[in-house]
Amino acid sequence: MAVVTSARAVGRPRRRDRSRVAGVLLVLPSLLYLTVFVFIPVIKAFATSFTVRDRDDAGNYTYRVGLDNYNQLIASDTLRSNVIFTVFIAVASVAIVFVIAYVIALALRFGRGPSARFLGRIYIVPLFIPSVIASYAMITFLANHGFVDGILQAIGLPDGAFPKIVFDWKGIVITQVWLSLPFMTVLLSSVLLEISDSLIESARDVGASSWQIFRHIVLPLSAPGALIGVTFIFLGVIGGFTVPYLLGPNAPQMLGVSMVYYMTNYFEPYIASTQAVAIFLLSLVAAVYYVRQQFKREIR
Amino acid sequence: MAAQVPALPAIRLTWWIDDARIRRMLLRLFAAALAVFIGIPLLTLVLWSFAGEWFWPNLIPTQWSLRWWQEVLENPRVTNAMFLSFTIAPVVTLLTALVAIPAGYAFARLDVPFRRTLLLLFLIPNAFPRIGLYVSLAVLYYQIGLIDTYWGIVFLHMIGTMVYMTWITTATFRSIDPHLEEAARDAGASPLRAFFSVVLPLAMPGIIVASLFSFLASVDEAQGTLIVGTPHYITMPVLLYTLISSFQRPVAAVFSVLLALPSLLLLIVAQRYLHSEYVAAGLGRV
C-alpha cells in the first residue's frame, strides 16, 4: 500500500503536497484536544508537585519551588505505606490474572468439546460489566455474611470462620482479577493461535514432554502478547480508583483513593498532584514498554 | 488423506495431558469453577434486586418482591441520573467521532508530517494511570472553571473514547483497499466525494462498533465523573457509588442490574463481531 501511494506521489507532486496539508488539518483537532485535556494537565501536575505554598505571618500565601511535597510523601508513614500497598496490590493482581488467563487461553487453544466452548463464552462476560457493578457484586458475594459465607455456614462451618476479604487487600485483588481476566485472555489467545500445530507435533515426534513443550515452545512464543497484557493491566490496577474505593481497607489506601481524598475532601491539590506524579513514576517502566510495543504494532 | 484428518486433532490435543479422561475432567472442572467465579457474583446481584426479605444465612431470598424496582424507577434522583448519563453519552460519542475519524483517516492514508511522533503522542493517554490523569485534569478544571460542569464531564469522558476510536478507525481505514479511492479520484470525484461515497460506507462497520463502545464507556465512566462532576452532576455510576456506600443493598442491586443492561445487550449483539483487535485496542475498563 505504501509503495502504491509513494509511486503515485512521485508522478504527481502536487497531490502529495495537498495530502500533507490535509493530513495536518485532519489530525489537528484531536491533537489540540489531547494537548489541552491530557498533556497540559500532566505537565501542570508535575509543576504543581514541585510548588510549595507557604503562609507568612500576615496570612498571605507565597509560592516557591521545592521538594517539600515529595519529602512529605516519603516522611509521612501513612503516605509511604500507601505507596507500598499500591505496588503490592498491582503486582499481586497482575500475577494472579496472568496465571488464570493463561490456563483459560491454553484451554481455548488446545481444548476441544463442550467444556472448551462453554469456557469461550463465559470468560468474556466481565469485560461488559462496569467496574462499579463488579465491585458491588463482589461485595455481596464475598462479604462477611455474604453469599460464600452463607454456603460455608450451610456446610457446617462456625459463624465467624470466614476470613475478612471485603474491605481488605484480598477483596481488591480478587475483584481486579475478575475484571481483568477477559482482556488478558483475549491477548494470550491471540498469540497462542499463532503457534502452529505442526511445531508442537514435531516436538512431540522427537520425544518432548508436555513440560518441555510448554517451557521451550508455548511460553516463549506467547511472551510478547503476554507482556503487553501484563503492562496494560498493571497500569490499570495501579491507577485504579473504583475497586479500592469500594472494596479496600481504610488504611493503608491505594494511591488512587488517597489522591482523590486529598483532592476533593482535604482540598490539597499539591499533595494530590504529587501522588499523581508518584503514580506516573511508579508505572514508568510499564508505560514505556507498553508504548513501545503498541508503537511497533502501529508502525507495522 | 481421509485417514489423516481424524488423526490430526488427536495429536494436537494431547500435548499437555496424556490421559484423555483426566484431560476432559480437568477441563470440565476448570470451566465449572470459572463459571462460578464469574457468574455467581452477578447472580447474587440479580437475586438481591428481587428480594423482598433475605436474611443471612439463607442462600436465596425468603420473600420475593418487585418493590425495590418500583422504588428505584420512581426515585427522581435515579431518573435524573439516567437522564444525565444518556444526554452525556451521545454528545461524547458524536464529538469523539468528529475529531477521531478524520485523524484515523489521516494516519491510515495521508502523508502526515511527524507521523511517528504523533502516533506516539496518541498512545500517551493510555500509558498514564487513569486516576492520575483525572486528578491532574481536576486541578486544571478548578483553575479554568470547568469543575462541576456538563462540558467538563464530556471532555473528561473523551480522553478514553478518543484514543480508542482513533485506533479503531486507523485500523479500519487501513484495511480498505486504497485503489478503490484512487479509482474514484481518477474517475473525477473530488477527494471529499471519494471519501463520503466510497471510503466511509466501507468503514462504517468499524466506526459503528467504535461508537457503540464509546457510548458505553461514557455511560459507565465513574471515577473521573465523581471527581469533576460532584456535587451537581451525578451520573448513573456515580449515584451507584453513593447507594453502595450507604448500604441500601436491594436498591443498589436494582440499580446495578439496570446499569449493566445496556452493556449486556451489546455483549449479546456484538459477540460475533467482537474482533480481538478491538478488545486489544484498550477496552480494558479497569
Descriptive overview:
The complex is a heterodimer of chains A (300) and B (286). In chain A, 76% of the residues lie in helices and 3% in strands. In chain A, strands 1-2 form a two-stranded antiparallel ribbon. The longest helix of chain A has 37 residues, at 13-49. Chain A is built from 14 helices and 2 strands; from the N terminus they run ααββαααααααααααα. Mean pLDDT of chain A is 85; it is low at 1-13. Chain A is mainly alpha-helical and 300 residues long. Chain A folds into 2 domains: 1-42; 70-299, MetI-like (MetI-like fold, Orthogonal Bundle), CATH 1.10.3720. The N and C termini of chain A lie close together (12 Å). The radius of gyration of chain A is 25 Å and the shape is globular. In chain A, β1 (51-55) and β2 form a beta hairpin. Chain B has a two-stranded antiparallel ribbon. Chain B is mainly alpha-helical and 286 residues long. The longest helix of chain B has 34 residues, at 76-109. Chain B contains 13 helices and 2 strands; from the N terminus they run ααββααααααααααα. In chain B, 76% of the residues lie in helices and 2% in strands. Chain B has 2 domains: 15-68, no CATH class; 69-282, MetI-like (MetI-like fold). The chains are: A mainly alpha (300), B mainly alpha (286). Chains A and B meet through α1, α2, α4, α5 and α6 of A and α1, α2, α4, α5 and α6 of B.
